[in-house]
Write a structure and sequence with these properties.
binds 2-oxoglutaric acid; six-stranded antiparallel beta sheet
């Protein structure tokens, strides 16, 4: 991979996101950036797997979360992650989509299920918190943004462009909800596969119809950011935020300050 800086056209990215619900930038990170991130992420993943062996080997496990928390990583490694997340390079992309005080929510790590026969499945993230009628409303509001940074080359994601703003058609609904004999792992004629390599970044709406594609050595670091106007601060775990001494070492900690401000408001 060549080390170079990538120019971004924020207006263009904003237009792409508004229309399709996602954008992808190839070779956005150079080798040094990926290697330093990979070192920390792989360490977390090894420790997490050891500690969660039963869950990891169960049918369901395909991700972990709270990567920036203090359970598995040292303060130094956590600071590496906090700096990576809040770097100008990352915030430039976030700002092209969220103009109102973007706030840090959480991080997740997506890996291949232990059971190689387990199939990837279509969903909208909001379906785990809301019934059908409320999901229809939720997709009209502010949505959580996922910034997916693949740690290794992977098959990537399959997305249904435009579904961040529109409701499912009949085929999509039957598959996602497993109705009328359909399974959530069935193919969708509207799906678009986005292959990703280490160094790329995919930015997408958590509430659009999507699925992760299992295969290769996938280990995808997802950063979750929300609009301060959205009702999401309850989802933030305090232990995943930088402490005061870490904040002092982060060049621009606004994305964390915005979360802390919402938390303080909630407490008063
Ligand atoms: O990669 C996956 O397995 C699923 C990803 C996903 O659902 C998400 O990022 O919200």
């Amino acid at each position: 991979m060549v080390s170079k800086s990538v120019e971004v056209d924020s207006e263009q990215l904003s237009k792409q996101y508004q229309k399709h619900g996602y954008f992808v930038i190839k070779d956005y990170f150079n080798q040094a950036e990926i290697l330093s991130l990979r070192k920390v992420i792989v360490k977390f993943h090894q420790l997490w797997k050891q500690d969660n062996l039963d869950f990891y080997q169960s049918q369901e496990a395909f991700n972990s979360s709270l990567i920036t928390g203090s359970q598995y990583l040292s303060a130094e490694d956590r600071l590496t992650l906090f700096k990576f997340i809040s770097a100008k390079k990352m915030m430039r992309l976030v700002d092209s989509v969220i103009t109102n005080k973007p706030a840090f929510m959480n991080t997740q790590l997506f890996f291949n299920p232990f059971n190689i026969n387990q199939k990837d499945f279509w969903h909208r993230d909001c379906q785990y918190d809301f019934d059908i009628e409320d999901q229809k409303k939720v997709i009209q509001g502010t949505q959580v943004l996922h910034l997916r940074v693949p740690i290794f080359d992977e098959l990537g994601m399959e997305l249904v462009p435009g579904t961040h703003q529109r409701w499912d058609n009949e085929e999509e609904y039957n598959v996602r909800q497993e109705e009328n004999g359909k399974l959530s792992s069935d193919e969708l004629s509207t799906g678009k596969k986005i292959k990703l390599a280490a160094g790329d970044i995919l930015v997408f709406s958590a509430d659009m119809i999507h699925r992760g594609l299992y295969g290769l050595d996938r280990l995808a670091f997802d950063i979750l950011i929300f609009d301060s106007a959205g009702n999401y601060v309850d989802y933030v775990d305090n232990d995943c935020l930088p402490d005061i001494s870490m904040l002092a070492e982060i060049p621009d900690p606004s994305v964390y300050f915005n979360t802390l401000q919402l938390k303080a408001k909630l407490a008063n």
